[in-house]
Amino acid sequence: MSDRKKSRVGYRNPPQQNRFKKGQSGNPKGRPKGKKNYRNRFHDIINEKVTINENGRRRKMPKFDIAVRQAINKALTGDPRGMKMLLELYRHFSRAGDQAEPITVTISEDESKY
């Protein structure tokens, strides 16, 4: 009777010689250990440090910081795409507790002509 239980073959019971050995992976040709996915690779690339010249000085900064600085500079020059990107970054990275009172801007008739 115990021999039948051990050698039972059928649904969800493969033959003993075809079962995985102890310590053997179920998918030996799968993703190699240490291989990074796209998200981790993106974070590695965006956090790489690059040397830039700023006000005559050489500085090393992460690529993300440089991209944010460029978006802010474009927004300050009046570029609508830069402004949109800056607002999207602000919304993405600001927390609910960070937001103070809403800013109101009033334009008088004299200023609207310019």
State Rg.
30 Å
The coarse overall form would be elongated
Series of secondary-structure elements, N-terminal to C-terminal: HHEEHHH
The structural class is: alpha+beta
Estimated helix fraction? 40-55%
Beta-strand residue fraction: 5-15%
Q: Largest beta sheet, briefly?
A: 2 strands, antiparallel
Low-confidence stretches: none
Number of strands: 2
- Please state how the strands of the largest beta sheet are arranged side by side: 1-2
Number of alpha- plus pi-helical segments: 5
Mean pLDDT: 81
Distance between the termini: 97 Å
Summary, kept brief:
40% of the residues lie in helices and 11% in strands. By secondary structure, the chain is an alpha+beta fold.
Task: Give structural notes.
The protein has a domain at 35-94. 40% of the residues lie in helices and 11% in strands. It is built from 5 helices and 2 strands; from the N terminus they run H-H-E-E-H-H-H. It has helices spanning 2-6, 38-46, 63-76, 80-93, 109-112, and strands at residues 49-54, 57-62. The protein is elongated.
